[in-house]
Write a structure and sequence with these properties.
This protein has 266 residues and is an alpha/beta fold. The chain is built from eleven helices and eight strands. The protein has one domain: TIM Barrel (Alpha-Beta Barrel). It has an eight-stranded parallel beta barrel, surrounded by six helices. Strand 4, helix 6 and strand 5 form a beta-alpha-beta unit. It binds 3-methyl-2-oxobutanoic acid (KIV) and sodium ion. It catalyses: (6R)-5,10-methylene-5,6,7,8-tetrahydrofolate + 3-methyl-2-oxobutanoate + H2O = 2-dehydropantoate + (6S)-5,6,7,8-tetrahydrofolate.
Amino acid sequence: AKRKTNRHLQKMYEKGTPITMVTCYDFTFARLVEKSDIDTILIGDSLGNVIQGQDTTLPVTVDDIIYHTRAVARGNQSAHLLADMPFGSYQANDDEGMRNAARLLKEGGAQAVKLEGGAAIAPLVKRMVTAGIPVCGHLGLTPQSVNQFGGFRVQGRGEDAGEQLIADALALEEAGAYMIVFEMVPKDLAKRVTEALSIPTIGIGAGNATSGQVLVLQDLLGMNQDFCPKFVKRFANLEDSVVKALDAFGEEVRDRSFPTDAHSFD
Ligand code: KIV
Ligand code: NA
């Protein structure tokens, strides 16, 4: 099957079909996403938290994103592949941003890149789009700005903040972004901004009026019972399944009931 493209997603949006997105960072899960009917994979800088065990996404490098994007691309042939531009990869200047975005496509195999920020990065977004690099925006709680926000808190509350978010979204659309992620914003604001745009919006903690939804794969699979922000719903409890399987293996090794002859060679 051919990969879904930005145009596929735009057509889904125009038909009113909700767009589904999950993060994915490795071959094994990318295969499973392939077997599902998820539209889009985000190789998110959340891999800093989920894969590397960091407290924030800030330490993630362009090389990290490329490494994981390559692994995902080998396991999945049909989802749209969107890769995050990590912290520091586009803030110093636009030339560096251009080179790093191109690397995510050339070396990683991503089809598009995602950048955190609004009107301030619109010129860079425009340059990328002009160069043939589709760009997804990311507004609201942008985790790369956690130090500026002073924590992981809902963004866009209050009249001024709401207007600012809408202005940022319109600036990104005007610059040529094909989609925008909204993270942890009040649901009424996410609805307003979705109505103001003519490109799809993807929500995470943004209510159900956005054009689609994204969750971190390990969160929706229930792989970490110690981490449960309000916007996460666990659609499975893999933490329990995995720990049970490990304990079953351990027990059978200790009582020598594994391996049997069925798992042994003559
Ligand atoms: O890195 C990530 O997982 C993300 C999503 C939460 C949108 O940016
Ligand atoms: Na991210």
